[in-house]
Amino acid sequence: MNNLSDSMHNLMMFYKDKSCLVTGGFGFVGGHVVDFLLKSGAVVHVLDIDTSPERPSLINLKGLRDKISIITADITDKDTMEGAIDETKSSIIFHFAAAATVVEKAMDIPYATVMANTMGLVNVLDAVRKLDHSVYSVLFSSTDKVYGEAAELPYKENETPLRAIGLYDAAKMAADVLAESYAEVFGVNVIIVRLCNLMGPYDFNIDFRLIPKSMKNIYCEGQPPELYFHSLSHWRDYLYIDDAVRAMLLLAKQKKCHGEIYNMPGCKFASTPMMINDIVDKTAEIERRFDGGLANQIIDQGAKIVMGKAKHVVIEKQHLSGEKIKDAIGFVPEISFEEGLEKTILFYRSYFQGLTEKQATAQNPEE
Ligand SMILES: NC(=O)c1ccc[n+]([C@@H]2O[C@H](COP(=O)([O-])OP(=O)(O)OC[C@H]3O[C@@H](n4cnc5c(N)ncnc54)[C@H](O)[C@@H]3O)[C@@H](O)[C@H]2O)c1
Predict the structure, then answer these.
(1) Per-residue pLDDT tens for 256-269?
(2) For the structural domain made of 3-198+240-265+318-335, what CATH number should be given?
(3) Staple partner for 164: which of 173, 211, 341, 364, CB 3.0–4.6 Å?
(4) For residue 31, which atom of ligand 1 is closest to its CA?
(5) What is the pTM of this model?
(6) If you take atom 21 of ligand 1, which residue's CA is the nearest one?
(7) Contact 92, 23 (CB under 8 A)
(8) How many Cβ atoms from other residues are within 10 Å of residue 168's Cβ?
(9) How far is the CA of 99 from the centre of ligand 1 (A)?
């Protein structure tokens, strides 16, 4: 066994037989955490407002429903949350549930966004505070958007001021600050992780996120990906989901991380036009193994610039320092951007084309 698999084995052994509650487990990030926990032999409880079997989600598509206990609940309901946390006797809670499709949706439902993204976490932390059984750790998924527009990059946990203005961003920032309060004032073992943009399979926020949306444009509509004029100067960090999951599971395992804040750095810092170019090039490269005509069409079409002003507050550049998480748990991304992007595109290719994953990854024998 090499070092990597040794450390993964240790990580999985830690979670074996542990009772874990994953809020928002039917979403993108939560689904991958559920998958990892099940592979580790954990007892997994998933709480989500939408747990229907028809919903596109990792849990449903991988047939995991029978392996977990499902709680259909709204995180803004204080009493229900208290009951759920008490009854599951969870020793580790991963809190992902949120109105997470970011800016566009938050603009339409401001009150609900604040309730879910701020009070949802408060309900979890307050329930933990009152419980008679001890919760080993609560991992809260915050966001790089809490920093807002900063004079200096990269954002550093203990130096960069929090300047979130957008509604989603500010609601997350409030939760992020309150998490620190609950740790400091009540000794709740919460860990705050400020995530960058994650990419990977099973993200069904298709109309809101760059890669899934571009895949839909290409594979469902025969159209080029859209590049918004107002996003031409945006820069973001990108990280493959498996690396993010590994880091979060490592953080939740470590006592020394309780009460601390960690940035989750990317494996690539790129402008939005650079990302769109990479998506087009990689999709064409993959498609050339299957359908040369479509590969040529993808290259010829390139990207479509969509004019217009942003309706919401947007941050020009978001960039996280990864020094603190590296010092604490030795985390650095292991999956390269190219590999992560390829895996992600292959998933959506198969999903949108209705092929099995095996068919989608098989090489074209004529090539
Ligand atoms: N995906 C990213 O790149 C990214 C980046 C930064 C931060 N985050 C944070 O990570 C978390 C997970 O993000 P995601 O990408 O998996 O989002 P997602 O939208 O795929 O998943 C969120 C889940 O929360 C559930 N939910 C929403 N409101 C709820 C409520 N009131 N009660 C119970 N469940 C509710 C949804 O049904 C969904 O299953 C979020 O808190 C998000 O803010 C994600």
Answers:
(1) 999 999 999 999 99
(2) 3.40.50.720
(3) 173
(4) 16
(5) 0.95
(6) 27
(7) no
(8) 26
(9) 6
